[in-house]
């Protein structure tokens, strides 16, 4: 930028004066200074604080999410990426501000509860950072996921969802999500699966009290061998726990025996009473207030109440729904030309003879 050429606009024998355009044009973030007699002007923006900038961006994104059209967003869901915004939330050290906007974005982008979007793992991760486990649990659906854009999104969704369920002491749900990561198809093992398997071992010991090293047949052979190599300490803990040999378990595990008052002091609670975390349906125990000892009891549930019957009925209905989805997927796969072509090539390779039928009888003409 140059000034209009005038004859001796300044006294060049003296240093050029400071010219502030910020006062004239009311730009609080810009200031200009004359650097040389040739009237060349350079500007240096006053940098905003990183936290303030991140908060402003979060506010703009929240306004856009609330005002945008859900139908248009779903048409370009692959471009609805909030990765940069999530990074700004981390830098602001206040991830709680982004939980509500991300929850709203997930509900707008998601077409059905059976479809997983790229926003799901980001939302769950942000809920973990903000320590909003209940908000993250609302994103997890009881319906089976049938549509996934990227395999990595499925891994992260189940991994973060399992961690949220652990925080809420919903160990059965956590096992289901971590199990999905461990048994997912993979040609090369990834870090997400390794961390999920470590937590899967610990949650299994907490929930059922026993651990089985053998994985189901649906798990990939690569995952099985890699888990044994990279998760050896956790596997040793599980095996020692199964054997019931306390001396061997103490050799691989270091633990403390703490009183309720010690726990309250460590987590900065007001008193030992706030450290009593026995909830209905989770742990059945009694605490002796005199000496602080805990006595564990058997489950008092007799499975005869109307509430338990409703729970069992919902589980049965879900099982029926899973069966219908499997039948529909089997029929769709049986009519897939790529699948039929591959089966035909395998037939020629192994020569099964006339007993091998590439098309099910249901679809035979």
Structural descriptors:
365 residues; mainly alpha; Serine Threonine Protein Phosphatase 5, Tetratricopeptide repeat; two-stranded parallel sheet; 6 strands; disordered C terminus; CSN3; COP9_N; cytoplasm; (rape) hypothetical protein
Determine the strand fraction and express it as a percent band: under 5%
Please, how many domains?
A: 4
Give a quick account of the main beta sheet: strands, pairing sense, barrel closure: 2 strands, antiparallel
Order of helices and strands: HEEHHHHEHHEHHHHHHHEEHH
The poorly predicted ranges are 6-48, 278-282, 361-365
How many beta-strand segments? 6
- Placed side by side, the strands forming the largest sheet appear as 1-2
The Rg value, from CA coordinates, equals 31 Å
Oligomer class:
single chain
- Determine the number of helices (DSSP H or I, runs of at least 4 residues): 16
Helix content: 40-55%
Rough shape? globular
The CATH class of the largest domain is Mainly Alpha
By CATH, the architecture of the largest domain is named: Alpha Horseshoe
